[in-house]
Amino acid sequence: MATGITGRKTRQHDTVRGPEPQPPSARTWGPGWGASGPTEDELRRERLWQDLIQDGWRAEIVGGRIIVSPWTERRHAQLVHRIQVQLFNIVVENGWEFYQTWSVHIPPARGDRRLPDLLVAPPDSPEFDDHQAYGYGTLLAVEITSSDNRVDDLEVKPAEYARAGIPIVLIVDEFTEPKAITLLWDPHDGEYRSMTKVSEGVPVELPEPFGIKLETDLIFR
């Protein structure tokens, strides 16, 4: 005996619809953006920045402007690697992590960010959003100077990193004679209150929580 169900017949071309997609403004952007997320101008900039990153560019945002640069050459990568090797044991022992593609939020502008050549942070460090760390929650940032951006590396970025609250910054400079490493720590009111500079061949001692010496001759070899 056939049974009948009152209602509209289902046709083959009917489809089951899921929930309507949310507009971009409704997505969760991260605590740094607040409950309302980015403004329309910020949203356009974020989309462009993400497109550049996905296309393989190294992109930062400074003063609301996107700054694009090509990825580094082999020598630059070697210097980063040699620092990472000397930091490896202390980082692993403490359960910290290395990052080379995670930006640091630079206050006060929302969305401003710098991309250190090497960043060390705990795995649960606070973040502005998925793409940006809060500097005060990290442990160390490393910058390798470049010939065409040396002033930024030595003067502009340290002030930005101090505002962000990064506890320790290491700047490796091959474009001076003799080659040198500058160590900055103890950020306060937008500047670092402690600094030391050593030449190639002289060890540089990192303050706590690292408490180790880096052999500069092994870095510059």
UniProtKB/TrEMBL annotation:
SUPFAM superfamilies: Restriction endonuclease-like. Residues 53-214 form the Putative restriction endonuclease domain. Pfam families: Uma2. Residues 1-41 are annotated as: Disordered. CDD domains: DUF820-like. It comes from the Bacteria. This is Putative restriction endonuclease domain-containing protein.
